[in-house]
Structures are given as C-alpha cells and as structure tokens.
Specification:
about 625 residues; alpha+beta
Length: about 625
C-alpha cells in the first residue's frame, strides 16, 4: 500500500477508535450506579402518570393539568411498554438520548471547526459534563432534549449553509423541531434564536423557506398550543418554582450548565459570562463567521426569554430548562480559546483550558457519586419498612405529595398527603382518627401540626421509628393487632391479653404488651419485664430488667377504666443485652413496695411466683 495512503488510513482508524473509546466511556459513566439511587418524586411521577395509555380518560385529564406537552407522555408510554418500568429501564432512555446528543454534537463541532481535533475535545467535554451526567441518570425529558436540540441546530445550520436547498430537504428539520415542541414548551425559545440568525443573514429567499417551514411546524404543533392555552387560561396552573431573578443567570445558571448544580458569586459569574460571550462575539466579528453568530444567539436568546417569560407569567426559572444551551457554551469556549493570540500558543492554551474543565468536572462527578446527598430519599428501604408494619387499618401520612412513595410502597395501608393549601386540616385529621387505627407520619417541615394533633389524640409508639417516621396508634386496640394472644391474670387487677414483637429503630426491638384492666387500684402499679437466659424455676436472676409504668407511665392503674384494653410498648435496647436466647417474664407489682401480684392460676403462681414466662426472645 502507498505509504501516504497507509498513513491516511491509520489516522482515520485512530480517529474512529478514539471516538469509539470516548463513547464507551460515556456510556459506562452514565450507566454506572444508574439504579443505585431511588427515583425522585418527578421521576416517579413520570413512571406512574406519563405512561398511561394515550387518549384514555386518565391521559386526557393529565394533559389538562400537567405542565408538559403530550409528546412527553407518549414517549414514556412507548418506552416503558418496550423495556418495562424498572428504575434502570426508565432511566436508560435518558442515557441513550444523551449519547445520541454526543454523536450529533461531534458532527456539529466538525461542521463548525473543520478539525477533528476540536471535535474530540468537545466530545470529551460533553462526556464529563456533570449537568449532562445528572440528567442522563434522571427519568425526565431534559436529557432527551439535550440529544435532539443539537440535532435540530445541525439540520438548521446545514440548510442555511445551502440556501438553494430544495424545500423537501427541510422535512427532517421540520419533523425534529416539531417533536421538540411536543416534548417541552420552552423549545419555542430556540426557534426565536434561529429566526434572529436568519434575519442577520439577510437572505430573503432563505427566510421565506424558513417561514414556510415554521408555518408547517406551527400547524403540526396546534395540539401543543391548545394544551398550553388550556393549562394557562383554563386550569390556571401555578408553578411553585423559584421566582425569576436576573442575577441567577450568572451566579447559578452559568456554573450549573458547565459544572453541575453550583452557585458562585455574582461578580465571578458576570466575569465568566463576559469572557465567554465577549470572546465569542469578538471571534465571530474577527472571523466574519455566521456560524459563531448562531452560537452566540443560541447561548444568549433563550435564557433572556426564559427570564422575561418567568417574570411576566408563572415562575419557571431553573437551569434545567436551559440544558440545551450547554452544547453552545462548550463550542463557545473552544472557539474563543482556539482563536487567542499568538497562534503558536493556542494548542497549549486549549490543552490547559480542557484540563482545567476536566479537573473541575471530575471533582463534581466524584461528589455526585460518592459525597453529595442522593437526589432522592431511600424510598425503597422506607417502603419495605412500612410494608412490614402496616395493615389495611393503617394510614401513611406524608407532608409532601411525592409520587415516589406510591411507586415503591405496595402495602395495604392508604396514603394521605397533607394538603399544601390547608395549613390546619383539623376536620380531615378528625376523620382519619375515626377511620384508621394506625398512623405512620413521615415527618417534614410541613407536618408539625399533624404531629401535635396525633400526640394529643393517639398513642405514640416510641422507639418504633425509621429515620423521619413516627408511628402512632389509636388508643382503642383492635384485637387483630395482638400477634401472640394470652390470658394471664395477675391478682384481681389485670389480665395480660398477649404481646406483639416489632423491629425498632437501629438495633432495638419493641414488645407491645396488651393489658385488660379489671379494676382501678388505690396505689400505682408497674410492669415487671425480665429477660432471663438460664433455665429453672422460679427462675434465676434476670440478665436485663426493663420494668416501667404502663405505656411509658402515661396510663396509671389508679385511673384506667375497667374492661379497657391498653397497649404497653416496651423498647428493648439490644446493644445493652448480650446476644442469645432469652425467656421473657412478665408480672405486675406495687410501685412503692415492690410486692408482686400473684398469678391467678394457683399452679402457675406456685411455679413462676409472679413472673410468668410469656415467650422466647432472640437477641442477635
């Protein structure tokens, strides 16, 4: 083979192998621990509601209330129908969409710079962008947008580079731009940037073709326009997102788009924006490059329009809505650095800037995977805990209407979301007390009133807590709650009707004793709870003593009602008890004198002497 030809083939092979390696690394990074973190609320909302059958009654109701176009619903309905509803499966769509965007981005960069080296640099910057990575592991449409929006700009740029292109070649652009509008309303902002770019070209024939294409897109997007109109003017949707503040464009938007969720000082943000946009404007004018002019408009126009829209209507001012200007920001940085004087230092400057971006991005990625708080609570663990506890007579009370709880929890209890608009839902709480026997409160900053109400009207089961969860039970004990029924009478004071064993917080366990009152006493009585490890009667000294007043001394035998059934929680701190098999012995005694009440059964009293062995407890 001709040496020159061999050199060309070798260089091309090296290029494609390098690109393949970058894509493999990008894929591996995006699927790494893809399902390690549970779905956050918005993701669970996607999986549970966006996947309903199109044009069903539930789908139509969703379209009237959900602030996302119907295309997003159809997309996830089709995707989950193909791959399923698991966490890995639903997030995989975002992974693949981001990789498609990376491929298009490299092609777009090649069209901008005509140099594969810069294309490889931009591929690397896309690969390690923390914001892209976060959304590539998130089951929402933002990663899909980051894949399709560069494709639309690439198709648009190719059409504007050849003004005499037959109109039928505009069809791919029309299709994908329409699809973007069906995925997110704010994609309309990028059409404005494209329109301003065409006006700057002053090519009337090209502008007429574009207007024709946009007219077709407008007709195709009529359902989206109707949905948006209904959302704003009929259902009067009100966003709860942060109010628009122009300073956030510099202190939050810019660093987040480049380095992941970050905030820097306003001065630093303005300086960074001036360096990027000022350098881009200077380079565009110096090179007389319409392509860089498009990049400038791509970066500047959508955020400004988002600010105005959020200022005048509903606040929708978050960096994720601008995720598709990140490709333009990366192109702008490379374009500015690649044109800095003197030319002989440009490769070193490019290498230095690239390495700097890599260091910052890799630091953020490391924090994302290993140091930052997870994007969602451990819903699966919480749901498992609740499923092991709850019955159809219980209710789970949540301070936030987070669909993730509904996604993970499959137990028999009902879920009640404390309403945002009702700060003091006394009537609803009264109804809950009347209809349920167990209450699991997921504590938050919006549950203080519920917590106070439940403490006053129900019995708190102290120690039976998953982090952030407080259990309450109705004072009236349903007989079905008792797992191990008994009938051990102590004197003429009370009958032990049974017990239930629960796993408590950390390494503890909880024993629920159930006492039926026979009469009120003149003096206070306490419960004897002994853990005995050795055999023999009337029994050796206990290994652990957990004597207490009934229900943490809330219930007094001097005041309890004859015939009433009372729940008596006993927290067993197993850290203080050596592992082993223990006999649990229960009795009643006068608190002041320590005199034990006799077991009514004479034979049992003769054997156990007031300390009846109700069962075996294993401490691990």
């Amino acid at each position: 083979m001709n040496p020159l030809r061999w050199q060309l083939v070798s260089a091309r092979a090296t290029l494609w192998l390098t690109l393949a390696g970058l894509f493999l690394v990008a894929f591996a990074l995006r699927v790494y621990r893809l399902d390690a973190v549970d779905l956050r609320g918005d993701e669970a909302y996607t999986v549970m509601l966006w996947t309903v059958t199109p044009f069903s009654q539930a789908w139509m109701e969703l379209a009237r209330e959900e602030p996302h176009p119907v295309g997003a619903f159809v997309l996830y309905w089709a995707w989950t129908g193909l791959v399923g509803h698991s966490v890995f499966a639903v997030r995989l769509l975002s992974v693949l969409s981001n990789l498609v965007g990376m491929a298009v981005f490299v092609t777009l960069a090649r069209r901008f710079f005509r140099r594969w080296l810069l294309g490889l640099v931009l591929a690397l910057l896309w690969l390690i962008n923390p914001f892209f990575l976060w959304h590539a592991q998130d089951a929402r449409t933002y990663s899909v947008l980051s894949g399709l929006s560069p494709l639309c700009f690439y198709l648009f740029l190719r059409l504007t580079d050849h003004p005499d292109t037959p109109f039928y070649k505009w069809i791919p652009y029309i299709v994908f731009q329409t699809l973007l509008l069906y995925l997110h309303y704010f994609e309309l902002l990028w059409l404005v940037a494209q329109g301003l770019y065409l006006l700057s070209l002053r090519d009337h024939a090209l502008l007429r073709r574009a207007l024709k294409a946009w007219a077709i897109i407008g007709v195709l997007a009529i359902p989206v326009a109707v949905q948006a109109y209904y959302l704003v003017f009929v259902s009067q949707f009100q966003s709860t997102i942060v109010e628009a503040d122009w300073r956030l464009l510099f202190s939050n938007f810019l660093p987040t788009l480049l380095f992941g969720d970050n905030t820097i000082s306003l001065a630093a943000g303005i300086l960074l924006a001036v360096l990027i946009l000022g350098g881009l404007a200077y380079t565009s004018i110096k090179q007389k490059s319409p392509h860089l002019r498009l990049v400038f408009l791509w970066v500047v126009v959508p955020p400004l329009l988002l600010y105005l829209v959020s200022k005048w209507t509903n606040p929708n001012f978050l960096p994720r809505y601008m995720i598709t200007i990140t490709p333009a920001l990366l192109i702008a940085i490379v374009a500015v650095v690649d044109n800095l004087p003197p030319p002989k230092f440009r490769p070193y400057l490019l290498l230095g800037v690239t390495m700097g971006l890599c260091v910052v991005s890799l630091h953020e990625i490391n924090d994302y995977f290993f140091n930052d708080p997870p994007k969602s609570p451990r819903w699966h663990t919480l749901a498992t805990y609740l499923e092991s506890r709850t019955t159809r007579h219980d209710v789970i009370m949540s301070g936030s209407a987070d669909p993730a709880l509904d996604y993970y929890y499959s137990g028999p209890a009902d879920i009640y979301n404390i309403p945002i608009s009702n700060a003091n839902p006394l009537g609803e709480f009264t109804w809950l007390i009347e209809h349920y026997s167990g209450f699991y409160l997921l504590a938050s900053d919006r549950t203080s009133f519920a917590d106070a109400y439940l403490r006053e009207h129900t019995q708190a089961i102290y120690g039976d807590t998953y982090p952030g969860v407080v259990q309450y039970r109705h004072w009236v004990v349903p007989p079905t709650e008792i797992e191990h029924p008994l009938a051990i009478q102590y004197g003429d004071v009370a009958i032990l009707r049974g017990y239930t064993v629960l796993d408590g917080a950390g390494d503890s366990i909880i024993i629920l004793l159930y006492w039926e009152a026979l009469r009120q006493t003149s003096t206070q009585h306490s419960v004897l709870v002994h853990f005995v490890s050795e055999v023999g009667e009337p029994g050796p000294p206990p290994t652990a003593v957990l004597d207490h007043g009934i229900a943490n001394a809330i219930i007094s035998t001097t005041a309890w009602q004859s015939g009433g059934l009372y729940r008596d929680p006993v927290i067993v701190p197993i850290d203080n008890i050596p592992p082993g098999q223990y006999t649990l012995r229960i009795g009643l005694y006068e608190t002041d004198t320590g005199i034990k009440l006799p077991i009514e059964d004479a034979a049992a009293e003769s054997t156990y002497q007031g300390r009846y062995p109700i069962g075996e407890i294993t401490i691990r």
